[in-house]
Design brief:
Largest sheet: 6 strands, mixed
Structural class: alpha+beta
CATH architecture: Roll
Oligomer: single chain
Distance between the termini: 36 Å
CATH class: Alpha Beta
Helix content: 25-40%
Shape: globular
Radius of gyration: 15 Å
Order of helices and strands: HHEEHEEEE
Strand content: over 45%
Number of helices: 3
CATH topology: Nuclear Transport Factor 2, Chain: A
Number of strands: 6
């Protein structure tokens, strides 16, 4: 593996970590900062229909965050795959503790996060989470 590829792989890992830090922050502006500001942005939250476009994607995060008082992640099994020089996929397992409307729950979600490189930064363009039973 070349040094350049390893640097890019680490940059994607860091972008993925920034996504989960934004998720844990429950701050929509911080979440917006990790996403590509594009109509190509898409998200599939567990139990939701697919949403497309940065407006609907960000509205979904607002709705998720408004009832939450805690979302804590331990992300494991991170795998980075490059589809091109400017597109990367991250597969990972979200081990999640949440407090929503006063109720504590724990769960696991298998996630796929797709990043695009724009302006020298890796930005999220797609997030898909599927619950693991």
């Amino acid at each position: 593996m070349t040094e350049e590829l390893e640097r890019e792989r680490e940059a994607v890992r860091q972008a993925n970590a920034a996504f989960y830090a934004a998720f844990q922050s429950l701050d929509t502006e911080r979440m917006r900062a990790v996403w590509a500001q594009s109509d190509a942005a898409t998200v599939v939250h567990p139990g939701w229909r697919p949403l497309a476009g940065i407006g609907p994607v960000m509205e979904s995060w607002r709705r998720i965050f408004e009832g939450a008082t805690l979302m804590q992640f331990t992300v494991t099994g991170v795998q980075v795959h490059f589809d091109s020089e400017t597109t990367a996929r991250v597969l990972c397992l979200e081990n999640l503790t949440t407090v929503l409307d006063g109720a504590v729950s724990e769960g696991r979600v298998q996630a796929t996060n797709v990043f695009v490189k724009a302006g020298g930064r890796w930005l999220l363009v797609h997030h898909h989470g599927s619950p693991v039973m």
